[in-house]
Amino acid sequence: MTSEAQSQDRTIPTLAQVVAAADSLWPFRLQEDWDASGLVTGRPDQPVRRIHFAVDPVAAVAEEAIALDADLLITHHPLLIRGVTSVAAEGFKGKVIHDLIENRCALLACHTNADSARRGVSDALIAAAGVNPDDAAPLVPDATDPNAGLGRVGTLTRSVTLRELAQRLATNIPGTAQGLRIAGDPDRMVTTIAVCGGSGDSLFHTVRSSGADVYVTADLRHHPASEAREQALGPGEKGTPALIDAAHSASEALWLPWGAEDLQRALAAQGLDVEVYVSDLRTDPWDFRVASPDSDSTPNLTSGETS
């Protein structure tokens, strides 16, 4: 059979059908009140033959989707998360919108709904840590679906040192200039892992209540991280939880292959055929890092060591 005949035999979904399938996997009702997940551009009846997945709707990603002749770009982060008064192409966001529309490529954002859904961002992150996501529970269960919600907490089948866990994550999480930052004794044993893909310092109290030995997240700011460490090292405490801080986009990029596979499978179950691609562009905003001299020998001031 020729490729032309194969193309004619394919049952191509409409954009509306793809959005409905996405909603079945990562329900938009799960998104946070402040979020802007959902369809940004595109006609509901337009055919979708090819879908491109990425974390960020930046210009390079839009160009990549257009070069692939994608009919739909699905990004984790929304392009228009705050109100705007213009999408003129003279602005970088407006240019992305114009480029996509002019090339008939729709844009769909699946942000905190994909964070909270099963087989979403946090499930992918806790799997990278070595925990079976099917055995992990949400840190903040959704009010309507206790199996979904923000973050995850679960238990390793075998305890490892904090250093070993960090090395495992460094291998599994896409590389960035930041790499991983760790707070805690590298030789302490950890068993219970809490994670939250993306910015997770708002969940510190919940993580402590969960009894997790270590918390894996991103975008940890100085003061919340310092206060969490002071609490962890306070009288009677055992340094729980240790902290592992990844780059924001890297902690979420693990979900992209899962999302692409699950969406293609959901559409195939309806007899609908699409091609899916996952961007390998690094959209983390930082380009390089310069380590401090003798950074490995920096004194641990909490233990009273001096240089």
Automatic annotation (TrEMBL):
Keyword Cell division assigned: no
Keywords recorded for this protein, A-Z: Metal-binding
Composition-biased stretches (Polar residues): 294-307
InterPro entries, per database record: DUF34/NIF3 (IPR002678), DUF34/NIF3_sf (IPR036069)
Entry superkingdom: Bacteria
Renumbered residue ranges of the record's region Disordered: 288-307
Pfam families: DUF34_NIF3
Gene3D superfamilies attached to this UniProt entry: NIF3 (NGG1p interacting factor 3)-like (3.40.1390.30)
Protein family per UniProt: Belongs to the GTP cyclohydrolase I type 2/NIF3 family.
SUBUNIT field: Homohexamer.
UniProt xrefs under PANTHER family: GTP CYCLOHYDROLASE 1 TYPE 2 HOMOLOG, NGG1 INTERACTING FACTOR 3
Name this polypeptide is given: GTP cyclohydrolase 1 type 2 homolog
Organism annotation: Kocuria carniphila
